[in-house]
Every structure is written in structure tokens, then in C-alpha cells.
Amino acid sequence: METVNKRSSGPELADVFRNCQQDYLSRHRLTADQHKAFRAIVTCRTSIQGSHRLICEDCDHVKTCYNSCRNRHCPKCQYVRQLLWVERLKSRLLPVRYFHVVFTVPQVLRPLFYLNQKKCYDLLFASSAEAVRKTGSNPSFLGVQTGNLSVLHTWGQSLSYHPHIHMLIPAGGVDQDGMEWVYSHRKFFVPVKALSPVFRGLLFSGLEKHLNNGELTLPDRERELYEDRKALRKLLYEKNWHVYIKKTFRGAGQVVSYLGRYTHRVAISNSRIQEVDKTSVKFRYKDYRTNRIGLMELSTTEFIRRFLQHILPTGFYKIRYYGILSPATGSRIDCFALLKSQKKESQYLGYSTYGLLVGILGEEMFRCPCCRKGRMVYVVPSIHQNSS
User: Fold this and answer.
1) Which residues of 314-342 are buried (b: 16+ CB within 10 A; e: fewer)?
2) Strand, helix or coil at 52?
3) How many angstroms separate the CA atoms of 153 and 150, rounded?
4) Angle CA(176)–CA(182)–CA(186) in degrees, nearest 5?
5) Which residues form the Transposase IS801/IS1294 domain (predicted)?
6) For residues 74, 76, 81 and 85, what is the CA-based torsion angle, rounded to 10 degrees?
7) What is the pLDDT of residues 267-320, one digit of tens each?
8) What CA–CA distance (Å, rounded) separates 261 from 50?
9) Helix (H, G, I), strand (E, B) or coil at 63
């Protein structure tokens, strides 16, 4: 019999999946990645995932905890991972302002992207980063070597399929000789109207290459369109593509705070799910047209279908670094030295996993529920326990 960790909050994504697990899996064909994520979310922090024990240092009270699934699409397994990633990132962030730029994919391309996720997402990363590199190095603008941190999101607030790149770009860069840091004093170092067509041209060129080589699976409804390259180009070039700046951060501290709640998001968090029953799910969403919070209700089947659209291919990196922010380039150009600053070491360097959790979550999270004085510590399994 499956046993679940006791929860102290409301309905969760796992509850939605459990309510119609057998029926949904029997009626719908899932990819291997989707099936793996589905099972992980359902079994997260249950006896199926195994368990570990904590014991109080003072009163010897023992508590059994069920293990997390550690799947990156599980909303319960991202918090600590997110905090650790942000802590490591602190040593890499330059002490300058940052721009937040978003690159979106036109709606007509979304079916093609969904059928060819790895190739198309790779192309989206590469095209957006190259657009920033080319425009940043243009002498007509800033004329510097720049870089960026890119994060892939594939969803909208209603869980619709909407692949886009969130990019953080330092406000400036290194001159072409690699000897001086050049600051950007404008709202952005290149006009967005100039960046958008460069991005569009690079992405279309990459898609055309993949199509010519027969490397992409074509959507049945748009097959004729993708086979006619001139018609496809005309359609994609009729309108301007959406590249826009969302926010400017004044320094690395603001960036870290922002990244801490943004980069490791999944399609929907448990906090947004309001009501769950056998047939439907109600969840909060933000309508960006009115800037108001609303409540949306979907059938359980439709809710799961939408969520599963955002399961990434196994091994796919959704966070990437380019230019002066990438480790390879950073080893050749010491931007910290040019900025007369020093890298900061992580405060958790050398800690054990348990020590990291205590440092991140705080001592109170490990306070004994029995005596309320002692600290609960991890019990290392004995060889006998492992063998049994």
C-alpha cells in the first residue's frame, strides 16, 4: 500500500494526477519523458520512493520521511535545487546592471516546435544569443563583446504552449581588445527594433537549414506551408517578431533575488491550484492584458494534457550561458578584474547535503516535533538496513 507524507497545504499537482491516473494513461499515449515525469510526480514523497529517518539529538524521537522524486518538472522538488543554483551563480554574476529581454516564437511555428523540441529549442537558444552577440558587437551601437544567461520557458499562465526565452544581459561589455569594460548608459545598448529582425533572420535561416536537410517532423496541417519555403518566409516576415525588454535590474543583488524565484519554475506551482476533484481543476492565473488575477477551470484531462506539453526531453539544458558569462569565455577574459571587483565564494562551499539543507532552510525546519528543543539529524543507514 502506498503511503504519502502528510501535507500541511491545499491540493497539489500530484492529487490531480492521482485522481485519474489509470484512466488517463490507458486512454492517452505519452512519450517516455512524459510517462517518467507523470510517475515521478505521482510517487513523490510516498513510500514508493523509499524513505530515510531523522532522530532527535536530545530525546531520541525518530521520524520517517519519504524521499522526493527529484524530477525537475515536479513542483515540490525545485525549491532547494533552485536555492543551491542561485548560491552557485552568485560567484559568476558581474556587479553591473542587467537587462531582462524576452524572445518569443510566432504562433505559426509552435506546432513545428512541439514536434521537434530538442532541435527547435536548441535553435531558439542559439539564434537569440547570436542576435545579442551580433548587435552588441556592432560598432554602430555599443561595439563590445557581451554575453547572456538564457532560460527556456514553454508555457503561458493558462498552461498553453508558448515557447520563449528569458534572457539576462549585462548592461555593457568588454571592448574588442579585451582590455576595458564599456558601460551601457542607455535603456538598452541596442534598439529592440534592430534586435528583432536579426533574431528573426537567424531563426528562419536555421529552420530553413533543418527543413532542407529533412531533419524536422512536419505538422500534418501545415505540411504544404513548410514545404513551400517562399510562402513560409513571406508569412514569417509579414509581422515583427516579439522581442521586448521587461525589466532592468540595478545590480547583481536584484538579479539573484529575481532568479531565485524564476529560473526553476515548472509549468504550474502547487500554490496556484485552488480546487481539485475527479472531473475538474481550478487554478489561479494572471491575465496580462488586464493585469488581474483570475480563476480558470479545466477538465482534469485537459489540465493534464496541457501540463504534459511542457515536459522537456531528458538531458536537455533549459538554462544556458553565452559570451562573457559562459565559463569558457570567462576563463579567457577576467571581467571582474576589468570592473575592479572580486568573485564571491559560495557560503555553502564544502558543506554536506544535510548541512546545506540546514543552512538554506534554517534550524527551525529541523526542530524536533516532540520535545521542541533538540535538532533532528539524519540517520545514516547501516549495512544491515541496506541489505534488507
Assistant:
1) eeeebebbbbbbbeebbeebebbebbeee
2) strand
3) 10
4) 125
5) 147-326
6) 80
7) 999 999 999 998 999 999 998 888 899 999 999 999 999 999 999 999 999 999
8) 29
9) strand
Dist CA 153 CA 104 (whole Å) = 10
| CA separation for the pair 42, 69 (Å, rounded) | 9
DSSP code at position 110: H
Q: Which three cell numbers stand for residue 105?
A: 516564437
Distance of CA 27 to the CA centre of its chain: 29
Q: How many residues in the chain?
A: 388
360 falls in which pLDDT band (50, 70, 90)? confident
- Assign 353 a pLDDT band (cuts: 50, 70, 90): low
Helix ranges (DSSP H) in 60-191: 79-89, 110-115, 117-137
Closest CA to 94 of 325, 249, 332, 347: 325
Diameter of the chain measured on Cα atoms: 76
Contact (CB, 8 A) for 113 and 103? no
Residue 7 to residue 80: CA distance in whole angstroms: 18
d(CA 72, CA 80): 11
The count of C-alpha atoms lying within 13 angstroms of the C-alpha of 137, restricted to the half-sphere facing its C-beta, is 15
For the chain, the distance separating the N- and C-terminal CA atoms, rounded to the nearest angstrom, is 19
